[in-house]
User: Fold this.
Amino acid sequence: MASLKEVKNRIKSVSSTRKITSAMKLVASSKLHRAQAAIESMLPYDKQLGDIMSQFMGEMKGEYTSPFAVQRDKHRVIIVAYASNSSLCGAFNANVIKEMTKTIDELRKQGVKDIEVLPIGTKIAEKARKLGFNFDTDYADLMDKPNFAQASQIAATLMQRFLDKEIDQVILIYNHFASTSHQVLTREDFLPIDLDAAAKQRPDTGKVLDYIIEPSKEELIVSLIPKVLHLKIYTALLDSCASEHSARVIAMQTATDNADDLLQQLTLMYNKTRQAAITSEILDLVSGSLQ
Assistant:
């Protein structure tokens, strides 16, 4: 049985750790509140923009094609993966890394030899470097402070490279913020876009909307598609940030609960050890008095 001093030191150590996990939970909760407000403010705009494009694409019935929808043989693919800059957020980073590795293996099996990784976040960048990928930056500042201007610049660069036929496909991997307790690992194509799928996403409201479009639907879609693509990179960023803070809140809450359980067990052990020591001393005194 451990000595009283050892149990007391263990209690002190666990108590200190509990204070840290509890404080980290409060900090993550505060960040989650801001991140959740940002993504919830963005999603209605994103949904409405998607509905408008679906409405027009459905009415045009395949009459329009976009240079961003051109399907080509996959020779060069870019994977844009979102992760965090720090750990202690459960399986948040591990899930993204696992999905990225799985995607790379699938692409190589399909014969794609030229694969690039564009990491957004320190943790995914560290893993990508270990896998042998090179890149200029990990966009760590973007994960700490999301901003549309920088996200839009990333989207513009990817779109221009696609138009220049430098790349044939762009894949996004990120965690979608479904709720405070639930994040959904998501992998989807950023480029080329699927116009047929966009047309099928048209909401069935039972109403026939007859818009008067000036100058034309084609010209409106030409300007609408880049906006949707720019917004997608930013929305995925906000999704990932909210998911990270949510995952950290859950992880720190679990750690705090485990610390409480361990403290309860250690306190019980300390009391039993102390009682045993007192009983032993009393027996020694009684035995000595009888001699």
